[in-house]
Specification:
With 474 residues, the protein is of the alpha+beta class. Helices cover 19% and strands 28% of the residues. The protein is built from eight helices and 20 strands.
């Protein structure tokens, strides 16, 4: 098993090198952060110094039966055998999987390691990964964070288990649930309970108005299986709210006291689940538990504010042909998604007060989409979310970027389509009327297997620059 664990980690490391380009995985690991000024114990050992970090930050995923159960850290021997690879992953910020940078506003449930923790692991690996005395082990401090518990007032679960696709390694599937309520209520918390945890990579939740019912019915079970394929998103052109999401290691979510999402009879709750099928493929009946409060409580209503930016991605250098013409790209999305899809790219340019000339410097290897949003009324922001597809390189959502004191609401310097999450701020952010929000996406079209001019589109082989703010409803 230890040989398998090491081989898998080396394989993942090589993928990371290919993805990020400037990293080398050999005996001289290239450090992406400066650890020279971080104080560490003179001779760190596994049991006293490293095991508390692994138990607190890694074992939730890297244990038998979990999403990373193929590389378990359930014994000291597992960790010692893979010490050099563990160092590579933590020094380069690949593991634990936490996409936002340290420049970001503080976020809840931050899975990243501190510089001190990273330095301890690096020093331990460099000294040959000594075990030390098991009696020296003490669990890491929890900082007094109490476990989150919610009431399961409404449980959403498929009647029959979903059998994932057998011809892919990543299956994105959407499932719709009718809200079995007879009067308006508030969602004040939620918990996602994965059934087949070994393949549950992440989930995202949406609330659709009743006008989406016919579109959902057309998609649901159309291929003879529960739900529908939704690799790039639900694909439902209807008014919706993003409710939240889940990733391995995440805790149940309670919305801020006195707030909630208002739900009404007839609405549809849609969950997108990403199944990673590297190691197992089994039937799944994951469960969503919702905590509800009666509308009579008159809670402050939550909503999500949607932000979009233009997508204008040329072909990479050296790639030529009809597929590199913008007009052909517009024809393509019209054929795939309807006539209105052809108008979206120009509509987005106008919405952002831009023209194609503003994107004249875009190259296929470094294409940038951006949009400024002047805030028309005060907002109280509790959370942030960003979305692109597989060509994404980075995502950024800034407040007052041209001012003396800009704020980074969400900064993802190395985008990974397979690690998307909704992020809740540690402290609510007050945004004033007249402030400016700027959303910026950067893509690399050379990542495509079949590069062409890319515009906004629903499919994963198209692209998006999309974000939301979780706010109090104005």
């Amino acid at each position: 098993m230890r040989y398998i664990v090491l081989c898998f980690l080396v394989f993942i490391s090589s993928l990371a090198v290919l993805a990020h380009g400037d990293e080398e995985h050999d005996d001289d690991v290239t450090e992406s952060i400066d650890l020279s000024s971080v104080s560490v114990p003179a001779h760190p050992t596994y049991h006293e110094h490293v095991r508390p970090i692994i138990d607190a930050s890694c074992v939730a995923c890297h244990s038998e039966g979990q999403i990373a159960g193929y590389a378990p850290f359930t014994s000291a021997e597992d960790a010692v055998w893979a010490a050099r690879d563990i160092k590579f992953h933590v020094v380069n910020g690949i593991m634990p999987p936490w996409m936002p940078s340290r420049a970001n506003l503080p976020l809840q449930n931050d899975r990243s390691l501190s510089h001190e923790e990273i330095a301890i692991i690096a020093a331990w690996a460099d000294e040959g990964a000594p075990l030390g005395d098991p009696h020296d082990y003490a669990p890491a401090a929890t900082d007094g964070i109490a476990p989150v518990e919610i009431r399961a007032d409404l449980v959403l679960q498929l009647d029959e288990a979903y059998a994932p696709a057998v011809d892919v390694l990543d299956d994105y599937r959407c499932f719709a649930f009718e809200l079995n309520i007879d009067a308006p209520q508030f969602i004040t918390g939620y918990e996602f309970i994965p059934d087949a945890v070994e393949m549950a990579h992440h989930s995202i939740f949406y609330l659709f108005d009743e006008g989406a019912e016919s579109a959902i019915q057309r998609r649901d079970n159309a291929d003879g299986r529960s739900g529908w394929s939704c690799y790039g998103g639900p694909g439902i052109a209807s008014e919706r709210n993003g409710i939240g999401g889940w990733a391995p290691g995440a805790s149940p979510v309670l919305f801020p006291d006195g707030t909630g999402f208002l739900i009404k009879p007839g609405q549809q709750f849609v969950v997108q689940i990403h199944y990673n099928l590297w190691t197992t493929n089994q039937p799944d009946r994951s469960q969503i538990r919702l905590q509800l409060d009666a509308a009579e409580r008159e809670l402050a209503e939550l909503t999500d504010v949607a932000l979009v930016a233009p997508v204008e991605i040329p072909c990479p250098t050296g790639v030529e042909g009809p597929q590199c013409e913008r007009e052909n790209a517009l024809d393509r999305v019209a054929e795939l998604y309807g006539a209105d899809a052809r108008r979206i790219p120009d509509r987005l340019l106008r919405r952002c007060g831009l023209s194609r000339e503003d994107y004249a410097e875009n190259t296929g290897e470094n294409a940038r989409g951006f949009c400024d949003y002047p805030v028309k009324q005060p907002l109280t922001v509790f959370g942030v979310f960003g979305h692109m597809h597989e060509l994404g390189r980075s995502f950024r959502l800034e407040l007052n970027p041209d001012s003396a004191e800009p704020l980074l609401l969400l900064d993802i310097p190395l985008w990974d389509f397979h690690w998307q999450d909704h992020y809740l701020l540690v402290e609510p952010l007050q945004i004033a009327r007249g402030d400016v929000l700027r959303m910026t996406c950067v893509w690399d079209n050379s990542l495509s297997d079949d590069p062409r001019y890319v515009v906004w589109g629903e499919g994963t082989s198209d692209e998006m620059c999309f974000g939301t703010l979780l706010t109090l409803k104005p």
